[in-house]
Fold:
Amino acid sequence: MKHKRIKMKRMILIKMKHKKVIKKLGKNWRKIAMKNNKIIAIWGNPNSGKTTLSIKIASELVKKNKSVILVMADPYAPAIHTVLPFTETKDQSLGALLSSIQISQESILKKCIPVQNTKNLSILSYLHGENIRTYADYGKERVLDLFILLKHLADHIIVDCSSQFHHDLLSRGALELSDQVIRLISPDLKAISFYDASLPLLGERKYNVANHIKILSNVKPEMPKDIVGNRFGGIQNELDYSEELQRQVLEARLFETLTDKKSEGYNKQLQSLMDILFFGEDDHEKKEKKSEKKLKIAFLKKGSDA
Structure:
């Protein structure tokens, strides 16, 4: 709770430094800061399952009738056509959005790619064949613009970050501004090498790495998970390797539910992670609705008495 308050204060202070953004939103920026929605950044070593987990979390939220925008931030290997290979994108590029003269809620929605047969879920992504030189450079203020506006458009924002965040301003901004960061760790020695090289680049206090939710991913029985887990310490969850999930990756079916009995372990672990991320959110909404109902009844009663 303390971390959440600090994060909220930090985000408000950053907003106040950027008067242009606040002027654009007017009084609405206070409402944005108070909303119960979240930005969740998912980051990890290469091949740790960042995109896979991003989609699974987004899909679980949609099942709870939440609206979600999934931001696929990696400009080096655009993921959209690996997960939705038959979807027409119509020049709906995240790169074009970030490099435009200015962005608005309307321009964001135009670039959102809807996921067919999935209600309340859309994607912002670089497109197939694009790279870091396809569009003009953008600054940190543009990243701030994007995240503020996104929080006003959906219940939750999931950011699938690039492993190479030091070369990607959007992923770096997500690691700084997100309400929570999931750090995926493959249980192998390459992951140790990656983090020994990368974590010092997140040494500034604003990244708050001590509060990352550390998850061992793609865990197989023969892997040295204990060695890797002890190396990083504070592992909060595991996500086991699933053959069905691997087939979904290869066949671009990640938006489908895992139904194989052998995937029950993964599904339970995913639900455990959802509890960590969104614990108490449904109760909070029920209380809000109950409070609104009481106010409405009181108002109607007052009107009838008059």
Summary: Residues 281-305 form the longest helix (25 residues). Confidence is low (pLDDT under 50) at residues 29-34. Strands lie at 38-44, 68-72, 113-114, 121-125, 156-160, 180-185, 213-219, 237-240.
